[in-house]
Amino acid sequence: MNLVEVPPSAHVCENLIAGRRQPVTKGIRRDIVSPYSGTRVGTVGLSSVEDVAAAVAAAQAAFPAWRLTPLKERTRPLFQFRELLTRHLDELANLAALEAGKTRDEARAGLQKGLEVVEFALSLQNLDDGGALEVSRGVTCEARREPLGVVVGITPFNFPGMVPLWMFPIAVTVGNAFILKPSEKVPMTACRLGELMVEAGYPAGVFSIVNGDREAAMALVDHPGVQAVAFVGSSAAARAVYARATGHGKRALCLGSAKNHIIVVPDANEAVTVRGVVDSFTGCAGQRCMASSVLLAVGDVDHLVDGIAAEAARIQLGKGMGALIDGAAEERIRKAIDTAEKEGAQIKVDGRASKPPAGYEGGHWVGATVIDRARPEMECARSEIFGPVLTVIRVPTLEQALAIEERIPYGNATSVFTSSGAVARAVADRATSGMIGVNIGVPVPREPFSFGGTKDSRFGHGDITGRGGVEFWSQLKKVTTKWALQSDASWMS
Ligand code: NAD
Questions:
Q1: Which of 28, 78, 202, 373 would you label with 422, given CA atoms 20 to 30 Å apart?
Q2: Which residues neighbour 160 within 8 Å (Cβ) at sequence distance 6 or greater?
Q3: Is there a catalytic annotation at residue 13?
């Protein structure tokens, strides 16, 4: 099996405020439940407005000195953090797997991507990101990149380590004091990352964790001491957080849900397509915002659809695929497959009957599912299912495939599998998503390129991670200086 062992309830997640573990003031706690087994593996405190105020006050106290610390010096603890992250990668991956239901390999891969963001943040000290020009005789104009102040990241359940790592290494390196509000379903990995940030030597208050649910999230968004909010989660919550934060005049970037399409055409390489599509829709049991959800099968591609179905049917739960986050997710996914069947689609591979791994019957499991001959207006072709389900829509032309892709309200990823440069180019030019894959099923941009979608997958401007992350977490200050001694030279002369 590719799962980690489920220990008896052991983890007690507390807030990290002013560099110390602090229990929530009202003593309200929530169970952390392993998706593998449905059993409790720990508890987490749920923060109130008072806990949020304490975290913001500690961050505000840390910010002035941190902001004035030279960038090279601010980067020093990040070198230490990188070492700790590398040393503890297996431990962190085990925590992420345990609380989010991932396989061991998937959890590791997510953290590796997080490590890549840390390494990008380490390079910021050597980038010329401002610039100066002599704009007139003896007068220099200089742009300086400056932090925003106290900033917040609110993260989802499906990548307990990676999504926080998308945010805080860049945010703190450019000089902010960062407060993380992890998903209340998966706080253990984040809390361990917090301990490693303390061990790395960050000053108290530069990195904080406020655990809790939407109440804590909104208290952070509303707090007048918070300057910027990054959010990753469902579109409904992303829209609400964006409206609230920008209503307060704050900077906000809120990434939301997805319904990603893969276009396959007859000249696609069979082995590459089958592997790429199956990995894309079954990885993390389909619980990732870059998972493919709809296959637009153009022309005569029966051999490719059959190959994908055969490969998907071979996946065993607990080996090639992990569990679903909770009972609500399992119910939603089973219902989506039931509805597709009722609406007349063909269930080509049926994951509803897949057996959970022995000993994990109390967990939440659905096997890989392929729904064939769906129509674009069906529920399974329109709504985010967020499970290991691929909906196949047959279309005669690439033109029709692109028209379907355009009508979807989400815009995270669109991929094409083809051997033709012209087809690849047409999809890259015309697809409406923010991230495009050519013969890649999960086209997550690598650093320094930034992650971000379009349409209802993103509220706000810009991207997170990479150069976009630097832009989001900072502002430019322009300094115009005259050192010329002649008094007749003005700033315009
Ligand atoms: P979610 O929206 O339920 O929760 C995300 C975070 O927001 C959690 O920390 C939660 O406590 C908080 N929250 C929930 N409702 C809130 C509200 N009304 N106001 C303020 N905060 C609120 O999302 P989830 O179920 O944890 O994650 C799955 C969703 O996230 C999927 O829709 C998936 O597509 C999306 N996702 C998107 C990306 C992306 O980059 N676009 C990445 C990962 C996940």
A1: 373
A2: 95, 96, 99, 100, 182, 183, 186, 187, 188, 189, 190
A3: no
Per-residue pLDDT tens digits for 410-448: 999 999 999 999 999 999 999 999 999 999 999 999 999
For ligand 1, pick from 179, 183, 332, 383 the residue to mutate: most ligand atoms within 8 Å of CB.
Answer: 183
Give the CA angle between residues 320, 192, 323 to the nearest 5°: 25
pLDDT, tens digit (0-9, with 9 covering 90-100), for 105-136: 999 999 999 999 999 999 999 887 778 898 88
Dist. CA 223–CA 246, nearest whole Å: 13
**φ/ψ (deg, to 5) at 450:** -100, 155
The first and second tokens of residue 349, run together, are 């591979």
Taking a C-beta distance cutoff of 8 angstroms, is the pair 44, 53 a contact? no
The residues, any chain, with a CB within 8 Å of residue 326's CB and separated by 6 or more, are 33, 35, 185, 364
Backbone φ, ψ for residue 436 (5° rounding): -115, 140
Mutate to test the pocket of ligand 1, among 46, 47, 155, 158 (most ligand atoms within 8 A of CB): 158
d(CA 493, CA 324): 67
pLDDT over threshold 70, residue 266: yes
pTM: 0.97
242 lines ligand 1 (CB under 6 A): no
